[in-house]
Amino acid sequence: MIKYKIMYLSLNWLKDFVDIPKSITPKQLGLKLTMHTVEIDGIKKQGENLENIVVGEILGIEKHPNADKLKVCKVNIGNECLQIVCGGSNLQEGMLVALAKVGAKARWHGEGDLIELASTTIRGVESYGMICASTEIGLNEMFPLKDEKEILDLTQNNFKPGVDLASALKLDDTIFEVDNKSITNRPDLWGHYGIAREVAAFLGEDKINKITNYKLQITNKIQNPKFKCQINIDVKDEKLCPRYMAIALDGIEIKQSPDWMQKRLSAVGMRPINNIVDITNYVMLELGQPTHTFDLKKISNFQTNSKLKTNIIIRTAKNGEIIKTLDGQERKLNDGMLVIADDKKPIALAGVMGGADTEIDNKTNSILIEAANFDSVSIRKTAQKLGLRSEASMRFEKSLDPNLCEMAMTRIIELVKEFCPQAKIISELQDEKKYFLNQGPIELDLDWVNKKIGVEIGEKKIIEILESLGFKIEQNKNVLSVIIPTWRATKDISIPEDLIEEIIRIYGYDNLDSQMPKITMQAPERNEEHLLERKIKNILSVGAKLTEVYNYSFVGEEQLEKMKINFSSHIKLINPIASHQTMLRQSLIPNLLENIKLNQAKYESINLFEIGNIFFACDGNINKDNVAKDMLPNQEKYLGIIMADKENNLFNKIKGIIKFLTNSLNLSVDFELTKNRFEWMDKNVFAQINILDKNIGIIAQLDDQIAKNLGIKKQVVIAEINIQKLYDLVLDNQDKKYKEIAKYPSVVRDLAFVVENEILYSDIKKDIENFNDLIKQVELFDIYQGEKLGQNKKNLAFHIIYQAIDRTLTSEEVDKVQEELIKYLKKKLRAKIRDF
């Protein structure tokens, strides 16, 4: 797992390149950076945890009377002398130390949280503070430990006892903690110089101070003709290494860096090592360009007389090749990893880490400086495969500007000569390069810019912002031709929208007025069909106490065969989700029956409903194998109701539910015997559902043999209704008409007669209703079939309601019409009045 590091910025370092007004506090600058450029996660002032920690001088050391490893010290802190018990391994009289007084905060042995110190007694001896190691007060980067028991030795600094440690060490910097994710696509922001450019832009500065420091010309003159070095650069793959610069210097003295550089490196979390290594780290943190220095004499060289020949080869590693890196680990490489090699072996992992075999050490007196540009994808893959993510690889994988190599090389040579005045250049500067940066131009229409942003920023301000960020502008009327600076051309800026982002972030998002979009709001169209469906669901679930189910829209051949349903017209699926769901359903009933089968063991009574689509093939939509082609099938929405129980009255119950549903929708329903019967229906218990003389569905009891085939052990009654037809009837019947209540009472007569089975109930009802104007309503209340009636006979019993609109009917009038009706039925339907 690669550990992602944090990037730190030094305020003092930024001030080397840009003037930041004293009126802007670090907190305000951090907010401006967050709002304009890069997210700041935290701000820390150096020395803020060093309160009550002063420079102390050890005046005397005595052995602790009760502990062999502890000593009792007398420490001068200027205005008083304190007794301190300490176990430091390097204590000496006259030594200057960091002394934390009572009330100061420190980490015990450099671990855990900060704790506030109090006077204490250690093995019987009172102690009034603590002599600190660098790790205990957060200065381990500036003063690395050689021994875990070693205390911080300040003797060489010649500080006065009692001086505040933060003041003595000049820890006056402010450090900004940067969220690396916010600069993933900004390779130019991985150094202080790039951030300073941004600060200058949003603070409105005319130019970045001291930028001329990076325009110095690198001298190509060999400064010591008695000893020369010839460097040969061989780049095997120019895509993986677009630029490689190298130069050799002699007369190097390895020593500590100047105090100012050590403090700067420590401030941003970089441990000082020696002057040469510190210079390369410093330049990387300043410019964002990683570089590397090799011990020239450790590279495989060929020397003749006074001339040294060095071959540097940039190639991919051989599969299984081994390199020992600077962290002391041997790493096995594969053939996709880029390395820097001499004639014999790899001497560095390109863009990731140098090799231990060519490391700078105290004996180094000649160096080879490398400044290169590598392919971002290659570096990223190498770092991930090896689990080795370095400061260098983090930057190279962002696609750096190849022109940074020259700037970095100039700065390194400048600093090496400053730190080692006797150093001399002993080789020509080698620069192998082959790269192309798309710098545009990008055409930017100012009217389009203002329209996109939504605010009229102004031509002058737009040009000022872009030029402050390094863009070059040529104007042709209202269109700008924008040249991209090299440090933004690697992968950051490529289209006009990118330039808009640059303009608006420097202008300031908080300078834009928030406005609601001006649009005309319209209420959505009322979907009557959807509302009806919701109403039906509420009626059935709340009023009728049914449970709603959702089933897949698929059925299988075996299931339909058990129900004796012909599935030749069913649409087959090309890629069915299961072997038992191979076709689109043409009815809700098969899946509802499956619901009963799966739940019958758990519940005595099961009452379900489902509203869903069934599917039929369009004309020309089915091939010879009944597989749907490109066209979508016809879909119709249906309502299915199913009830299962051991009692025998389910048919009437489900009729009651349908009546409850239709009454709730202000419709009246009739159940009519029909000749259209499916094989799964009981031979005697089924009917069609009519509303306003229109057939909208069926109701039937499940045949016992079909139930057995399906494994169902309860009596089952099913109803299926076409929702679209029901919806049309509801719409047609929405306008309620006033109907005057009858003023005169009605008379009810019952009539029971036997007819042939083939004669339909609906036909009989119509004949009775149309027989006489006094007959206002006909209700079937009983059907009987039995041996007494004879074969293929049925008995129908009706309530016949007589009523006149202008008078009260007499019994004689009603009896007369009833007798005429009986004669009519006998003649037309061969009906026999039942008298037994």
List strands and helices in order, with pairings.
Layout: E1 7-10, H1 11-14, H2 26-36, E2 40-45, E3 53-63, E4 71-76, E5 81-86, E6 96-100, E7 105-106, E8 115-116, E9 120-122, E10 125-127, E11 130-131, H3 165-168, E12 174-178, H4 192-203, E13 228-235, E14 243-250, H5 259-267, H6 275-287, E15 291-295, E16 301-304, E17 307-316, E18 322-324, E19 330-332, E20 338-341, E21 346-349, E22 353-354, E23 366-373, H7 376-386, H8 391-396, H9 404-419, E24 424-425, E25 430-433, E26 442-445, H10 446-453, H11 459-468, E27 472-476, E28 479-483, H12 496-507, H13 528-543, E29 547-548, E30 554-555, H14 557-562, E31 583-584, H15 589-599, E32 606-616, E33 634-645, H16 650-664, E34 669-672, E35 681-691, E36 694-702, H17 704-710, E37 715-722, H18 723-732, E38 747-756, H19 761-769, E39 775-784, E40 793-802, H20 811-829, E41 832-833
Parallel strand pairs: 13-17, 29-32
Antiparallel strand pairs: 1-12, 2-12, 3-4, 3-6, 4-5, 6-11, 7-8, 9-10, 14-23, 14-24, 14-25, 15-23, 16-17, 17-20, 18-19, 20-21, 21-22, 26-28, 27-28, 30-31, 32-33, 33-37, 34-35, 35-36, 36-37, 38-40, 38-41, 39-40
Helix pairs in contact: 5-6, 6-9
